[in-house]
Amino acid sequence: MFYRLARPALFTLNPERAHGLAIAALRAMPRRPAPPGGPLETTVAGLTFPNPLGMAAGFDKDGEVPDALLGQGFGFVEVGSITPRPQAGNPKPRLFRLAEDRAVINRMGFNNGGAPAAAARLAARARQGIVGINIGANKDSADRIADYAQMTQVMAPLADYLAVNISSPNTPGLRALQDEGALGALLDAVLEARGGAGPPVFLKVAPDLEPADIDAIARIALDRKLGALIVSNTTIARPPLRSRHKEEAGGLSGAPLKDLALQRLRDFRTATGGALPLVGVGGISTAEDAWQRIRAGASLVQLYSAMVYEGPGIARRIVSGIEHRLRRDGFATLAEAVGSE
Ligand SMILES: Cc1cc2nc3c(=O)[nH]c(=O)nc-3n(C[C@H](O)[C@H](O)[C@H](O)COP(=O)(O)O)c2cc1C
Known about the structure:
Blueprint: H1 2-10, H2 15-27, E1 42-44, E2 47-49, E3 53-55, H3 66-71, E4 76-82, E5 95-98, E6 103-106, H4 115-123, E7 130-135, H5 144-155, E8 161-165, H6 180-194, E9 201-205, H7 211-223, E10 228-231, E11 251-254, H8 258-272, E12 278-281, H9 287-295, E13 298-303, H10 305-310, H11 314-328, H12 334-337
Bound molecules: flavin mononucleotide (FMN).
Flavin mononucleotide is lined by residues 56-58, 61, 80-81, 95, 104, 106, 108, 134, 165, 168, 204, 233-234, 253-254, 257, 281-284, 303-306.
């Protein structure tokens, strides 16, 4: 209700300024994670999530407000992407609201305060609730695989899971790490840096993949026993859009990504035969969207763009809508509903 009233004013601001205000407002919010033992509790990659709805990476890039986001009803929060060294990102403007399309285009370019600052901040929080740390490489790095290994070493002790992000379209060449040879070498370096006792490693992929890429990624992820695949990041594709910002370069997210991200989830479900947990993300804005993703094979779901349009109340609305659908369709547990379509 409050967000509906505030939104017209927020939307007169440029999107980055509005995002800064959202982070500032969240700082003042309660920091209680959802209590354990509810009807949507689910275990994925050895972690017990109070509910399956997460805040996707990119909202809290520097790990400033994970506990406040958990306090809004999210079952988990993925902070980042964080790179070894601080980095300014691309020149502004680099974030665009496509209100008529319920979409966002961004070419932020991994703007973040760097690993030492984020690690200090995350080390200072009380460890409650599930917080994943999404790691990236610096744009000017001479050895990107070494960046991921270094990030793993620094962040593993602070993370409930690590998300290896090789799917941002805004760091030139980054997505080439999804290619078969490079991906194996990257994951071997990350898993070695993590050691035997570290948190599970999730891999976040782009939606813009060919069938052969999907099979190769699935094979490598299964072989390396990853904790989960996060499907997907923003798209460089441009389905028909109405907004005046539709020609901006960058990654598209929100409603126009929904069908593509759902299709990719189904592709990865087929390619992995259900043997690897999937996190569904892209264009989810209602409980029905989340439920469809779960039925298509997602053990967990995430959102970002819908929060821009709906405000933080979206987490509780979607979680209670999933709970309703679980009961309505006669499933005893969330895990039973996963992939049941
Ligand atoms: C402004 C913005 C910044 C983002 N930054 C990151 C990032 O740093 N790392 C990452 O893995 N994904 C990032 N994402 C992608 C989201 O995590 C998510 O995969 C994508 O937006 C699709 O979900 P949505 O349609 O619910 O927004 C970003 C998205 C947006 C809109």
